[in-house]
Structures are given as structure tokens and as C-alpha cells.
Write a structure and sequence with these properties.
Helices cover 59% and strands 4% of the residues. By secondary structure, the protein is mainly α. The longest helix has 25 residues, at 44-68. Residues 1-10 have a biased composition (Low complexity). Pfam families: Sigma70_r2, Sigma70_r3, Sigma70_r4. Keywords: DNA-binding, Sigma factor, Transcription, Transcription regulation. This is SigB/SigF/SigG family RNA polymerase sigma factor.
């Protein structure tokens, strides 16, 4: 396998080494990492070795960030999260645990910090962490199953594959829609594909001016049901049937004045009932 080389200089030695791509590309750092693990905490030697190792491994973080940044967006933030993972791994480096070489030790830590950053910061709508993790798994599984089935898998098929409930799959699929917010200018409806649809923002409702009455509707319905039948009938005809007092009087066989007195008494009774409940 052909390797790409570039000169590197060890910390304070002035010697030239070689950095290679591939699984063993950073094996030249093993002596420095072993010295770092054995150096006294707070010593100048440890500080210099630490800085040198972090500088040498920074290209690894940069390469991984390009893979994880969605469409190249926010690559600087993803890289910064990866650098945090690198620093943490350098500080806890243990030669006895690094059986897979430097890459086997550092890549999981760098990748984990990048994944955590994307999980916590790349969603447009706040979604519970466990649901985010399930949504990512569902998306990955859907891609694999889709290739096997030759079509998009059903929620029930995803549920069987992941051994979870169908309701959880539905919630996870809904969470995936929250990963990226839609523009309020995005066209919707029959003309969405051609760009002639109604903008999403124009279909969003405004503030309901009667919202403050919602809490009283249940109480009002109970009070109306408690009215005598004649008063309840007159009330419904007047305010729900939009009938005039004279037409109500004719139908009920009473005078218009009597209808007016009954309505006034009924409304006063309803007001008193609401006031008592408040």
C-alpha cells in the first residue's frame, strides 16, 4: 500500500520523523505517548509532550469532522468537539489499554464527542435524548432494510428488527422530522413541487381571541344543563339559534316582555354561578 509522508519534528529533539496515512499512520507517536504516560503530572516534560501529541493528532480530528459534519455545515463546531475528545483521550492515555495502536485508542473518543455534539446541538426542535438515539438507530436500520426489501420498510418491520414497540418507531420517525426545521416560505399543497404552493407560514394559525374563555366553557355547560327546561330552551333559541325575542315569544306562547324577563333572570343566574366557581 502506498503511503503519503510528511516531515514532523519531535518535541524539543529537532529530529525528523514520518507521519503516514492508514491504520499505522500515527504509530510514530507511540514512544511519545509512552513517555507522556510515565511523565510526572505538572512537569514541563509532560506539558511539552502533551502539546506535541495533540498537534500531531489534530489532522485526525480534522478528517473525522469532515465525515460527521452534515453536508459540511458546522464543520468547525464538530471539529472543536472532536478536539475536546482528543484532549480527554490524551490525558487518560494508557499504553496497556492501547492494544489497537494510537488510532484504536483515540478514534472512539474523538468520534464519541462528535456524536454527542451532533445529538445535542443539531436538532431544530428539542427532543429527549433517548428518542434522539432511537431515531438515529431507526434511520440507520431503515436504510439497511430498505436495501434488502427493495422498498421503504413499514414501522412494524422496523419494530420487529429493533425489538421495540411500533409506537416507539412512530415517535422516532416523528422525531426525525424535527432534525431540520422547514422554512416558513416553503411551498405546500398541490403546487409544492413546482414551487407554486401556498407558503407554509400562511397556513399557520394565529392567536385565538377566545382562548381565555376556554377554561369557563366546561363550567358554563354544566350551569346551562342545570337550568329549568323552559329557560334553557329560550336561552338556546336566543343565543344559539339567533332568534329574536318576538319569534321566541310566538313559539313559546308567551309575551315578548316575559321572554325578556326570563332571559335577564337566566343570564344573571349564570353570571352568579360562574362567579361562585371562580
Amino acid at each position: 500500500m502506498r503511503t503519503a509522508t510528511r516531515p514532523t519534528t519531535g518535541p524539543g529533539t529537532g529530529t525528523v520523523g514520518t507521519a503516514r496515512e492508514g491504520r499505522t499512520g500515527y504509530d510514530h507517536l507511540i514512544p511519545h505517548l509512552e513517555q507522556l504516560a510515565g511523565a510526572d503530572e505538572g512537569s514541563t516534560t509532560r506539558s511539552d509532550l502533551r502539546d506535541h501529541v495533540i498537534r500531531e493528532l489534530r489532522p485526525l480530528v480534522r478528517n473525522l469532522s469532515r465525515r460527521f459534519a452534515p453536508g459540511g455545515r458546522g464543520i468547525e463546531d464538530v471539529e472543536q468537539a472532536g478536539m475536546l475528545g482528543l484532549v480527554k483521550a490524551v490525558d487518560r492515555y494508557d499504553p496497556a489499554s492501547a492494544t489497537g495502536g494510537p488510532l484504536g485508542f483515540f478514534v472512539p473518543s474523538i468520534r464519541g464527542e462528535m456524536k454527542r455534539y451532533l445529538r445535542d446541538h443539531s436538532w431544530s426542535v428539542r427532543v429527549p435524548r433517548d428518542l434522539k438515539e432511537l431515531a438515529v438507530t431507526v434511520q440507520r436500520t431503515a436504510d439497511t432494510l430498505g436495501q434488502e426489501l427493495g422498498r421503504a420498510p413499514r414501522p412494524s418491520e422496523l419494530a420487529r428488527e429493533l425489538n421495540v414497540g411500533v409506537d416507539q418507531i412512530v415517535d422516532a420517525l416523528g422525531a426525525l422530522d424535527s432534525h431540520r426545521a422547514r422554512s416558513l416560505d416553503a411551498p405546500t399543497g398541490d403546487g409544492a413541487e413546482s414551487g407554486d404552493g401556498i407558503p407554509l407560514g400562511e397556513q399557520m394559525g394565529g392567536e385565538d381571541p377566545d382562548l381565555h374563555l376556554a377554561a369557563h366553557r366546561g363550567e358554563m355547560n354544566a350551569l346551562i344543563r342545570g337550568l329549568p327546561e323552559r329557560e334553557r330552551t329560550i336561552l338556546m333559541m336566543r343565543f344559539y339559534g339567533d332568534r329574536t325575542q318576538s319569534s321566541i315569544a310566538t313559539e313559546m306562547g308567551i309575551s315578548q316582555m316575559h321572554v325578556s324577563r326570563l332571559l335577564s333572570r337566566t343570564l344573571a343566574r349564570l353570571r352568579e354561578g360562574l362567579a361562585e366557581q371562580d
